[in-house]
Fold these 3 entries.
Entry 1:
Amino acid sequence: MKIILSKEIGFCFGVKNSVSIATKVLKENKKSVYMLGPIIHNPQVMENFKKEGVRIVDRVEEIPEKSTVITRAHGVSYSILHQALEKNLSIVDTTCPYVKKVQKIAEYLNKNNYFVVIFGDKMHPEIVSLLDIINNNALVVDKVTEIKKIKYQKKIGFISQTTKNIYNFEKLSSKLLDKTEELRIFNTICKATVERQKSVIKLARQVDIIVVIGGRKSANTSRLVEICRQQGVKTYHIETKDQMKYKWFHPEDNVGITSGASTPDWVINEVINKLKEWYN
Amino acid sequence: MKIILSKEIGFCFGVKNSVSIATKVLKENKKSVYMLGPIIHNPQVMENFKKEGVRIVDRVEEIPEKSTVITRAHGVSYSILHQALEKNLSIVDTTCPYVKKVQKIAEYLNKNNYFVVIFGDKMHPEIVSLLDIINNNALVVDKVTEIKKIKYQKKIGFISQTTKNIYNFEKLSSKLLDKTEELRIFNTICKATVERQKSVIKLARQVDIIVVIGGRKSANTSRLVEICRQQGVKTYHIETKDQMKYKWFHPEDNVGITSGASTPDWVINEVINKLKEWYN
């Protein structure tokens, strides 16, 4: 068996940033540190934070006054920040800088009377906070059929969730042209995400099977799985080594490994070591 | 034989506008009326103007002082207008309003530091005058391969010659997204052109053969021919009834007829009458 790693693997810049800020806060103040939802979409990393004493809650109401609250890499809405401030919480915002940029662009388009269309997953926290920031003044789409229903608009501004598939973004963009006189597109898909997607396409050409390691709720991980399958390669999505099955592989296989942007190196290494144990 | 006309046929708004302005000028002043190139791309219409006494020239230098000069529907560059003014010519500008709009948008994008990309035919008079207006500060492209060569730009403004194929414009748009952070597209393809292209696609589904009537140099006519052929229908491009051949048809054929935006009704009617003579 030959194991080939994708050129882009492990934590991305935004996740590194978020995790390192949270780790620093924890070192300084082990008591009463809360997270408003998982700061990144990786259960193993979140489990470690819990062991360190962090409590993960869903709503500001659950956090006692004067505690420290760490907000997630996917962004936080103004209304939640406001609630937290009212409660005298000490706020540590770990929003990914690329996500912040999308928020600024969406606000700009909104103020300048563009009909804002967002390519994204309606339920993803990045989109939920983004919509809150622009008072729900946008349409979130995921498919060409949803674009076909849009009425003719004078000006359309089109942006994307940072972790979406660039090829689908391009496809939807071209369909939007039919709906407006002016289409202003900001390519807000994070470059690291694009590079990771391009790397996995190259990887798919070299291997018989691909293992994608990452959280079940991680949007960028799901996208990698989708892209691998589009390439016609047998693809498995696992969170940890324990979900991997011996019978998936053959000793002669070339096996490709990639990971989502929130998968830590140690989880990836465990998968590689297990494969080596089995087949070398 | 069944003859089916395309829903959109004959002069478009811009051509009607240009021809009616020129006709009015001719009525008022038969002497010393010049045209700077053919005001529309239809040889039969231009032949009629010549019979009425109009002289068609290529350059301002050929026009005597104090004459009247009619500029074409495709637009006229500022430098030519300037030359004409210096020579005390009386200028009648028949630029199509939709073409004027493209010129304004190109100037706006240029001033706002967009890298301007134009989907167009480098030699077409609309593009030649447009480029002159923005001091050649733009890249004219016609194919995906030309887009692939573009270096990464902070902001790209993308516009189109008014008579290009909307489907190709969409295709090129999506390729440009890879080249920039912000892509601002103005859909400057004239709506009448788009409607004509859509109509011909519908027509192609109903007929065995399509006859496209229009000038050899007419960009929008060439586009209709291209679109018909893409639909897999046998297609002939003629300027007048005399270029049509009896052997092209079969008595049982359903024959579709369409025309470019600068083809006058009488030329179309002659074609229809000839077909009826042959096959009814």
Entry 2:
Amino acid sequence: MTMFDKIALIGIGLIGSSIARAARRNGLAGSIAVGDASEAHCQKALALGICDSASMQVSQAVKDADLVVLCVPASANAEVAERMAAHLKPGAIISDVGSVKQSVIRDVGPLLPEGVHFVPGHPIAGTEFSGPEAGFADLFQGRWCILTPPTGTDEAATAKVKAFWESMGSMIEIMEPGHHDMVLAITSHLPHLIAYTIVGTAGNLEESLKGEVIRYSASGFRDFTRIAASDPIMWRDVFLNNRDAVLEMLQRFTEDLTALQRAIRWGEGQVLEDLFTRTRAIRKGIIDAKQDS
Amino acid sequence: MTMFDKIALIGIGLIGSSIARAARRNGLAGSIAVGDASEAHCQKALALGICDSASMQVSQAVKDADLVVLCVPASANAEVAERMAAHLKPGAIISDVGSVKQSVIRDVGPLLPEGVHFVPGHPIAGTEFSGPEAGFADLFQGRWCILTPPTGTDEAATAKVKAFWESMGSMIEIMEPGHHDMVLAITSHLPHLIAYTIVGTAGNLEESLKGEVIRYSASGFRDFTRIAASDPIMWRDVFLNNRDAVLEMLQRFTEDLTALQRAIRWGEGQVLEDLFTRTRAIRKGIIDAKQDS
């Protein structure tokens, strides 16, 4: 069922192009406009048939749109907001898909004109691939999408964004932005940082070892390389924009790792066994919560 | 084709029971005997029909065996070797499947009688599940198996172990034991240690955050929980037995992580972007090497 006469997706990478596909398949939008600074991305999106129009001018893409979703790296939010602000339709809803919510509220909120509604969002979904070709309509199926409307946000606007994501298969949670950023720091940002680090550490090895790291990656390492293949710009921006929460979680992690290092050095097997038994139970919680199989 | 009249598998967990299934399916053994300290494991193995006999007495299991494969946690190797030594058939080949090779050579080698051949091995394959039910015949298909025969090992014995693993679908590499332990420290042992740590760090969070960690685990964390669900005893023994190599790699990792922490604190985006771009290339190497898809 058509929920918006026109939606505009600013940034047509993995997430933007997945929204386009899901919205089109489910008939959620009368028309879909794409705005993307890359001409190649615009042409690709048109060629894929996932949008009705595509423009390098964000002002053009957002014209008459009832819903505008920012799907760009966090560092681009402010510039996009500045360029589109004067061209937004009165009553339009603005949302986004970024992994950090306090910074987008800080960067975008003050630039929006009176009479439009800002409902920040974050779909917990993705892959390690990037670009318009990487998207697929089922990406959000059965996955959480967290909305973090600032205090005072129009409730009808929040309800519309909620219904939009539910129509793409997501389950919705409303959360305070600062709490969101702390939860994601431990569930997402720190795991990515650690994966990037260990893959980098392996990449710095002596040549005699490096080839073997790839060859024997099935022993555990390759799970980290998949995570560490995620979009470099997007992730640079996540760490720069969620600095305090990431540094807090990183500090806790480092303390725990140092304690394990000490247990290994001194041969304290019971310390290792106790932790390894406890972590198995957490995995069971995830299976029980149907977040993996 | 039958390669051994009788093989004995000591320890019938994930790896032992996978060998039993693969050997049986491919007719590699005239008969398969299981030795396992757990009565429940022995009964389970018999009930599953993956062996011809099962005993809690290792001396019984190895009797007349042409190939004995130790599939127990590293800390149990010495005791098993002591119990079986006097009962080994002259000319028998002894092998193992452990993740650390210098320690099994140190612990088992001196206990074996003259006239038997010791060819340590390590199949790079596994899952996070444990026990006789967890095994499957295809576990080794397309995966590497590293053999680390000590200097002076009978070449015919090494060739037989190589052919045995090849018949179960593995690709073989012969490696010096110390080199093996260093390669696995970075490709396997450190990734497991880090996964255990971060899952433990999350488990220590305030109650208000803990439930959400499970709920939003799809954002990266759940890949770590799968790794951190691996067998606690086996992994405790890996870290205790490959201490020096693990501590060396852990030190390198910590230095790299500290450098990233500093870059985040000081907002050095280029440092982050450079690393994240480099790690993407390493992932590509793994795909190209067909170690993941």
Entry 3:
Amino acid sequence: MAQQHPDPTDPTAGVVTGDALAGYLRTQATEFLRALRLHRETGGGGSNGVEESVDAARALRRSARRISGSLHTFRPLLDTTWSEEIRPELAWLSGTLALEHAYEARLERLLVALHRLSGSTAVPAQAVGAAVGGHPSPGASPERGNLTVGAAKAGALLDRQLTLARTRAHSTALQALGSSRFHAVADKVALLASEVPLTPTAATTDLHPLASAAEERLTDAIAALPLVTAGHPYNAEALVHGLSPDPSPHPQDGPWHQVRLLLRLHRYAREVLHGTEAPVDLRLLTAGQALNRHRDASEAAAAAAQAARTPRIAPATAYALGVLHADQRHEVEAARFAFEQCWQKQTVAAP
Amino acid sequence: MAQQHPDPTDPTAGVVTGDALAGYLRTQATEFLRALRLHRETGGGGSNGVEESVDAARALRRSARRISGSLHTFRPLLDTTWSEEIRPELAWLSGTLALEHAYEARLERLLVALHRLSGSTAVPAQAVGAAVGGHPSPGASPERGNLTVGAAKAGALLDRQLTLARTRAHSTALQALGSSRFHAVADKVALLASEVPLTPTAATTDLHPLASAAEERLTDAIAALPLVTAGHPYNAEALVHGLSPDPSPHPQDGPWHQVRLLLRLHRYAREVLHGTEAPVDLRLLTAGQALNRHRDASEAAAAAAQAARTPRIAPATAYALGVLHADQRHEVEAARFAFEQCWQKQTVAAP
């Protein structure tokens, strides 16, 4: 992928055509197959196997998202039937593979927050699990000593529930990777690595208009966000409905999640145009991190609220989960503020 | 009190002497006696009596605080024995009178927060009590409909506990106002209204050095506050120790409460120098409001935590109280941010 034209918004920039798209898709497909091979080799899991297997699953998801995203953005340049067949399958695959890691990260986030709320500092992630997971070890006792009964019980409850969910997600992912459905996707990606089904005119079509359309969808969605409110610190918006009887009380998070996905599509489109080796736009990186934090805190808050609905828990446990829920909803608000700061500052600073 | 010199920091300003202090103390003593008369007339409580009685108690506290504060700041200019006798008595009086109003305001703050957290908007304070207090009326049902069982039970529990505390504080205040201890204070204040026990040299002593010392104590205390942290929105400091096993987990609030008192002393010293009719410094007003909000939110958070320790409450109630506690601790953090913004902005803006 020779990339002479680093700025897609530069009107004097030359043409990057469907050929570059084909090259990008072939690269991602090759990455996918490499990750798949690695996953099969490590999936059985020896002593180092677990970590390598996690890396492989992450790499699989990474390339699956990029293939799927590019098919979406550059849809008109690709064979429609093929594209419409493979996209939902890639989404299913990356969604299934993402769950295990998501549950693990959610548990870690919540346990670290519980320790912060209990006033203990700099708790190593591993010690957290040991300290609150109901298996105290002599080394973990200083951390445990700082937890109230409520915080310790809340931690143990979350540990139980999210570890169970993670284990189930792990089994589901293993089943998925052994399924005929998966083999059909893998075969399609293997074909993609050698031959990309472009439309007859795609090879000479400029990619910029479709990439710009993806960027416009992003900027339109950002313009519709309540950024003025988000830019006022401590606006207390994220916790409104925190005690609402509505079982899904946070529709306010939806538009932010949507912007997170559109930002990702925009980033992938930039990779197609500029090459994967081009330096990452710092603004997009920071904005993306804020939106990831928003999503993670939103889901962690929901997990704390969900755990509080467990029958027959002690009031002290429920109280700790309430504090934890509110804490994570404020993380949601903080992430919106961080996004607003990074986005607005650079919009103003741009020439 | 003729006031030719509006700026106590202006080195060219002329001298304001102990005469001005005597005038100020006489005025405040007269206010105290007027408020006391009004309180006695309305204390029995007819239909309008309650509100007037509340106003009278507020006016009593207001002048008691000003007399006590001025005696502290300008201590060297006043008869020591007299001053050391009357100050703790005035502090006891204004403390006793303040409690009833404090419990009432705390309950209102917590009920309004519960409604906000339940997603209902613009709830009139009176409707709140009716909606969550366990006495639903047809008019209050829309608000009640938006409360979960947990939020409604938490509201009812807080209503019960803080109303009981308020009732007790009311009785204590009435007893105090009928006590011989109170009559001794009132007699002393009555004497003060006609004759202020200045030291022999006070009448010709410049008040500025003592007023400046009060201001320095304020600026020193502010300099010791963690303002850099407070100026970073969403620093999550206020909720650290939110689940600490320590029964008084918020020593971090102490220095802010102290600044609130020093700010008040500084404001009273300015009143002595500039007269009570001089316009209030907007910065001091805003800073004082932020510190009041800090104190109120800190105490409301403690009341929610305290209510959660009630034996045999339902988990849903405890969960709602946990969310409420965290919400008020974030109000604490927001108040610190507001203080930092108002204080730093004007420090920079000052010539």
